[in-house]
Design brief:
The protein is α/β, with parallel strands linked by helices. The protein is built from twelve helices and 14 strands. The chain is globular and about 60 Å long.
Length: 324
């Protein structure tokens, strides 16, 4: 089985690659090659991994990758929320044009080719006013450019699946915390920062109030979602190919208290409150809670609680320290 990972250099892409190499198979078939692609060439984690770099919105680049006819394609590549809002043209070029170019490259391979395509969408496809717990039938009316780009991607995925060009599954990821490494340009980055930095003895900036509620999942849960989406029986999805992933609905205050439980008052004291109206406005337009029944019924599973997410992050840091 050949696998293509677009966005393989990001945190989730790296963890997905590691998981696939560790298990050695996907859906009962041996993994024989992984094409790992990103805007900056990913590190090669194994002889099975072929790495490359380029612009996903360049049709020639994406066509060359698809020409290898991967059995499964994970489309993780995207300009993140804050950057897509700040750079309108870049957001649409990468998030929309890049997705369309990918689908067209697959279609042009001909009738004998129909890969499983796992598309990472976002809960940003929904916009306020919200239900108390957003159901699977809630209207998609995004309030950001990023959410709009992802919503269009979902529609394209469904249509290309309907026409038999791909076997698509769209997974609307919660905000992933705790992200290791340095902060990125996502407006949601502080959700990880207020945990990650204090655990490393560093100050973290909190730009929103403690009563802000959000839908989150761990990196391990995200990788589990991706692998399940690549191997599940898609016949039960029907024409609605995108699902909201299970997660945890927690307030910033609850996250801070979970940090206190795990790491104590000293860690919490490193959180500095500095209100940012721009970030607060973006976050206010995001959904806070979901009834992810379709995904749960399809076998997707979430984290147990937020303290377990923090403890898993600490365990990951320890494991990385041992490897280095």
């Amino acid at each position: 089985m050949r696998i293509l990972i677009l966005g393989a250099g990001g945190m989730i892409g790296r963890k997905l690659t590691e998981a696939l190499l560790a298990q050695g198979s996907l859906g009962g078939r041996s993994v024989t090659a992984i094409d790992a692609f990103d805007v900056v060439e990913p590190a090669a984690a194994s002889d099975l991994v072929e790495t490359s770099a380029g612009d996903i919105s360049d049709p020639a680049t994406i066509s060359a990758l698809v020409a290898k006819r991967p059995d499964v394609i994970f489309h993780l590549a995207a300009i993140v929320s804050g950057e897509a809002e700040a750079d309108f043209e870049k957001g649409y070029r990468v998030n929309l044009d890049g997705t369309r170019d990918l689908l067209e490259a697959i279609r042009k391979q001909g009738e004998a080719y129909c890969p499983r395509l796992v598309f990472t969408s976002s809960i940003a496809v929904f916009g306020a006013p919200f239900e108390e717990a957003i159901s699977d039938t809630f209207l998609q009316a995004p309030l950001t450019s990023y959410g709009t780009q992802k919503a269009i991607g979902e529609l394209l995925l469904a249509d290309y699946t309907r026409k038999g060009f791909v076997d698509g599954v769209g997974i609307r990821l919660p905000t992933i915390v705790v992200r290791p490494g340095k902060p990125n340009k996502a407006a949601s980055g502080f959700f990880s920062g207020i945990i990650r930095e204090p655990l490393s003895g560093l100050e973290a900036v909190l730009p929103v109030s403690d009563d802000v509620r959000h839908w989150v999942a761990s990196p391990a849960a995200a990788v589990g979602f991706l692998i399940h989406a690549a191997t599940m029986d898609t016949s039960a999805l029907g024409p609605r190919r995108s699902l909201t992933m299970p997660g945890l609905s927690v307030t910033v205050g609850e996250m801070v208290e979970a940090l206190r439980e795990v790491a104590g008052d000293e860690a919490v004291a490193l959180i500095r409150r500095a209100p940012d109206e721009t970030i607060a406005k973006i976050v206010a337009g995001w959904p806070r809670n979901f009834a992810a029944d379709r995904a749960s019924e399809a076998g997707f599973a979430a984290d147990a609680d937020f303290t377990s997410i923090i403890r898993a992050h600490i365990a990951d840091l320890a494991e990385e320290g041992q490897r280095s």
